[in-house]
Amino acid sequence: MPAVVVLENVSKHYTTVKGHEVQAVRNVSLSVQPGETVAIVGPSGCGKSTLLRLIAGVEGPSGGSIRRETAGGHFIVGYVFQDSSLMRWRTVYDNIKLPLEVVKKRDLGNVDRLIDLIGMKGFERSYPIELSGGMQRRVSIARAFVHEPSIVLMDEPFTGVDELTKEALQHELGNLIRTLHVTALLVTHDIEEAVFLSDRIFVMSPRPGAIVEEVPVNLPSARDPSVRSSLEFFAAASKVRAKLLELHAMRVDAAT
Ligand SMILES: Nc1ncnc2c1ncn2[C@@H]1O[C@H](COP(=O)(O)OP(=O)(O)OP(=O)(O)O)[C@@H](O)[C@H]1O
Ligand SMILES: [Mg+2]
Fold it and tell me: Whose CA is nearest to atom 12 of ligand 1?
């Protein structure tokens, strides 16, 4: 099967309001295969969110190419934003339903299915302000899956969530990805999150972000929290950490 998305030598420059040129992303090449979850790990400001916006097509690259595999002429994206960005005037049900309105799908069966899968039955008519931070994250995740997207793009989905809640949410997200057979691209600076959820991890350098390492995660696709103490989990996490530390040291050296 062809890759869902292929990036070849993708670069992105911005001009700031003061007129300075900023290179956010440099020569990124990667592909995501159907059904896999790929993570991109890198320090703050290295261009991770930029890369997701480029893949989603809301911004165009300055150089290189992005090829998207379309189904029925459409490439449909599910997006989990860096903050939950729920619409405060819409209920849980109507927030999750939103992408179906955008792609004009009439069948609302998936909304109930997802509310069930994320354990939010009974909260359909609640408003975001009435939910805990963890529940808001669940709703924003359900919203990204509801319209059966070609790929789900997740931008640091659990930033600001306490450690134990985060681990529970990561477990739920992994189950959701497997149950719904989705293809996913996860952006995070959390190494354990990347290892727990993905099949391959790309390590990005500080800005201008370039991919400097690919780390395979040799764990079974069905994962419960006990894999966190396995040797393979530790091996993959150590590899990513070592690369990030090496890049960090290079940056400190360059600044001194
Ligand atoms: N619209 C824009 N105009 C100018 N510069 C921008 C714009 N968007 C992003 N940048 C710059 O591009 C770089 C990468 O930004 P981006 O938000 O992609 O980083 P990130 O890896 O997602 O960071 P974080 O982990 O903090 O979310 C930053 O230096 C940022 O200031
Ligand atoms: Mg970001």
Answer: 24
